Amino acid sequence: MRKIFYLSLFILNATGVCLEAFAQPFSADLRVANPVQVNDYTYEFDVYIVRTSAGFAYRLNSYQFGLGIDTNILNGGNVTIQVVDNSSQLTNAAQQPYYIPDPANDTVYTNLNFGAAVYVFGGRPYRFINNTPQQPVIYFLASPISNINSGCLSPGTRISRFRLVNTRPFKSGARPNHIFSTQSAAGQSATLFTVSTNNIPSALIEPGGINPLNVVDWNNSVLTCDPDITFNCVDSTTVNSTICAPNTAVVDIHLLNRRKILKGLKVVGAPKHRLSDCLCYRKVPAIKQLVGDLS
Known about the structure:
This protein is mostly beta strands.
């Protein structure tokens, strides 16, 4: 059975009093959906929010989140976090994530960052994609949150589609193992939302607060949509269990093996028996980008 990772938000009013007088307590799911490995260096996915409670519709006044990525997928590369153009379904453009390159000034305008600190959760190392906390907007300018869940492909309102571009091929066989942050720390934003209706003031949802935010792990067996993918070599060849190499490099490796310069991926007779110790790689440009991976 395929699975989906989501964050369940149960919303009470700002005083902590349950909203039963108006309707059942508000609740929503925050989900990662539709992950795609575009090529060896590019990965895309959606973040959706969907209202799951009956009764009043409500709007998104402000939000911030920290979305964890298992650093094993990075393969030692540096990642740029981008936004796919026109992918957000938030009706107020000021609430949408953005990534705007400005080549003329050699800069990028964005409200996203990739935290440098590494945190271990469930035995896995994580770094976090964080969006800059927003100033709340008043009710009639806030983006509505849909209660229509059309299944795995469209579970509610899409906050945006995100694109990760790596300087190295993503590690073959690895998975992102996405989690949402429930705490605030260096390089890690807590996942917080404020919502309201036309007659109920803004309510804050936070982990451990009077308006609890409950994380449901993506391993939950009752769920049906998998927010993760397993990376593989899309437009190249795996030269061992984890490294994606350009097809031209694979040809060069085979050639060096036939010439007995290499034995497998080790250099015969080199002090440390590594490709990076062999001057031969300088003569085969396609192998150069592998040297760091094989060292």
